[in-house]
Amino acid sequence: MAGSDPEKLMTKADKLTKLTITRWSADWKSATQLYEQAAVGFRLAKDYEKAKIAFEKASKGQEMLSSPWDAAKHMESAASMAKEIGNWREVADFFRTASNLYIECGRSQPAADALAKGARLLEDAASEEAIQMYTDACSILEEDDKEQMAFDHYRAATSVYIKLQRYDDAATFLLRWGLAADKCNAVHSQCKAYLSAIIVYLYADDFKQAQKCYNDCSQIDAFLGSDQNRCATKLLSAYEEGDVEEIKRIGHSSTVSNLDHMIIRLARKLPTGDVNFDLHSVLVQSPVRSLFLAPIRSGVLLQPSENNEEGNMRISAFFFQFIFITRQPAITLKLQTLSSSISLRLCPDKAYLDNRSGFRVCDAGIRCPTPILLRLHLLVMVFIGIGK
After folding, report:
1. pTM of the full structure
2. 13 close to 57: Cβ distance less than 8 angstroms
3. DSSP single-letter state for residue 295
4. What is the β-pairing status of strands 300-304 and 360-362?
5. 262 and 290 co-located in one domain
6. CA–CA separation, 36 and 288 (whole Å)
7. Is residue 366 in some structural domain?
8. pLDDT cut 70: percent of the chain above it
9. Pairing between strand 291-293 and 365-368?
10. 225, 247, 267: which is the final residue of a domain?
11. For 328, phi and psi rounded to 5 degrees?
12. Is the residue at 274 inside a domain?
């Protein structure tokens, strides 16, 4: 029978599924065997269209015989035949049908794998459908509390988003990956996903969103103490300081080199935009509320603050100071003392200083334990959320 003409096998099988005066019920068992043999014959003859039809009918036969697992296998074979003839719509439909049949068997992993197989075939021909199939594959495993089995699907979907230059979507999917990793205690994968999302935002030249992503992820203890967090901190600081060489150095660091290849390629191309703080663009593009220019001084002198029992010192004047109220991101000021550097980060509601500087945040202002002469290297302070 295996050497029989597949056309004759199909004809005989079709007759067995039709009711006649002498046949009151379809013989699906015999018909399915014939469809399977015909499908193999057509495939060997490279008649992919007829092989596809034969596998479809064999799948239906297995369903009629209450065997969804075998039905799913035949449907995957039909999808492969559809791929050979370039019928991408049927590729997607057949793999989705196979996935549903696996779910009917209570098998979430093969169901997700079927969608992923289809998505891989569709990445170039139908990218949007591929992304949706990867997303659905992740959802199936998430619903079955098998997030760790979905990591390859998160990675693949992110890669397609990056190829399409949909960087916001890529970063969002990486954050979803991080959340899934958190649920299954895959801390290393979680931290890598968060750092990857920050890098994607930076590659898209969206520093503000990268900073927001960093702040949100830093609320998670696992990320806060990780190598990936330290790498992200250094990278964002280099952007704030306009240090292109440092950005490139971090992009080639061992922490970045341990990320996925698609992210490494982006990191090695950083920076993609202007990392220098441009006062003119801020004034032109931002809703400036007010502008104040302080007098030029030869230095910054710390004077004792009044009514201060602790004897702390307060900054009294700057060299040259632009203070304007806008909604631009906070920045870092570099203050050079006679013996060390001090990093001062200005944010909407408070200032953060390097722990080694001896500064602290208080309502009365920014103070230093001892009087010292400072030189202001970065002369712009930006505040957001003021004067609304």
Report:
1. 0.70
2. yes
3. P
4. unpaired
5. no
6. 73
7. yes
8. 68
9. unpaired
10. 267
11. -70, 160
12. no
Do 82 and 126 belong together in one domain?
yes
One domain for residues 199 and 158: yes
Reference 268, options 212, 210, 202, 207; nearest CA is 202
Strands (E), 168-319: 291-293, 300-304, 313-315
Per the structure, the complete domain to which residue 379 belongs is given by 279-383
CATH number at residue 156: 1.25.40.10
Rounded distance between C-alpha atoms, residue 198 and residue 152, angstroms:
20
Q: Is the pLDDT of residue 220 over 50?
A: yes
Look at 227-231, 330-334, 376-380 and tell me which has the smallest mean pLDDT: 376-380
Residues 298 and 237 in one domain: no
Q: Would residue 388 count as lying in a domain?
A: no
| Residue 21 pLDDT grade (very low, low, confident, very high; cuts 50, 70, 90) | low
Tens of pLDDT, residues 281-316: 333 333 333 333 333 333 333 333 344 333 333 333
Q: Check the CA dihedral 48-49-53-54 and report its sign.
A: negative
**Residue 49 near residue 10, CB atoms below 8 Å:** no
Distance CA 133, CA 80 (A): 16
Pairing of the two strands 380-383 and 322-325:
parallel
Give the model's pLDDT for residue 315.
Answer: 37
User: 193 near 175, Cβ under 8 Å?
Assistant: yes
Q: Confirm if 180 and 142 have CB atoms less than 8 A apart.
A: yes
Q: Which residue has the higher pLDDT, 199 or 364?
A: 199
pLDDT at 18 (0 to 100) = 86
State the Cα–Cα distance between residues 385 and 378, nearest whole angstrom. 21
The secondary structure element, H or E, covering residue 128 is helix 127-143
Where are the strands (E) in the chain, listed by range?
291-293, 300-304, 313-315, 322-325, 331-336, 341-346, 351-353, 360-362, 365-368, 373-376, 380-383
- The number of distinct structural domains making up the chain is 2
Cβ atoms of residues 150 and 139 within 8 Å:
no
Whether 183 and 303 share a structural domain: no
Residue 305's alpha-carbon distances to 244, 311, 344, 353, 375, in angstroms, are 39, 8, 19, 19, 20
pLDDT at 246: 94
| Co-location of 262 and 283 in the same domain | no
Distances (CA, A) of 154 to 1, 105, 120, 136, 338: 45, 24, 13, 11, 51
